[in-house]
Write a structure and sequence with these properties.
alpha/beta, about 250 residues, about 35% helix, Rossmann fold
Amino acid sequence: MSEQVRFAIERLSCWYGPSQALREVSMTIPATGVTAFIGPSGCGKSTILRCLNRMNDVVPGFRLSGRVLLDGEDLNAMQTDPVAIRRRVGMVFQRSNPFPSSIFDNVAYGLRLHRRLDRAELELEVEEALHAAALWDEVKDRLDHPASGLSGGQQQRLCIARALAVEPEVLLFDEPASALDPTSTRKVEELVLELGKSLTVVIVTHNLQQATRVADRTAFFLLGRLVEVAPTIDLFANPRDPQTEAYVSGRFG
């Protein structure tokens, strides 16, 4: 039985002004599980991640060629609504970015934007999102407190709850634990693993050990090119390409 494909990336090349960031990348991303993008700084992994929900649209001078298909739909077609895409494809950034409002209002923001709910329904949806982000027990007695009062790790999980509240099909993580302490990193990684059971999860990470802990598949990028993509255990234990082997063994990067 063939694996369901969520994203099909076809000969994708990207530029920021005159600088080319991606070169003829083709790959698929399955509908369930966790896919990690690894590679040295400047290799193009964050660029391709942001192509999956058109976040690069807001970057002056950005352009692309090729196609990115989400469930067969061309994300960059004229008729495609980027706002609708970002509802389906949520994103959690490197540094937590809670809104300057209460914990409750952070999670409720997208719900109020996209759905008409009464107060009881809204409270239930917020609670479910906080449960899904493994944060409910820590904040249930202070939902009206400012989100800025949470720790760094809690703020990052709040941002995950905010993304989950609108029930996305895909969740993108761009270095979600790079600014966190080891305990908070472990909690975020456990959450990524759990979310991968029901969602398409794609994570960019510089931490190779993190990729081995959370990812089912890993893609290695170098100088804007996709060098290799494989099940994580195979890519690290028996890479096909000498460049992959050099990177995962720590000889450069």
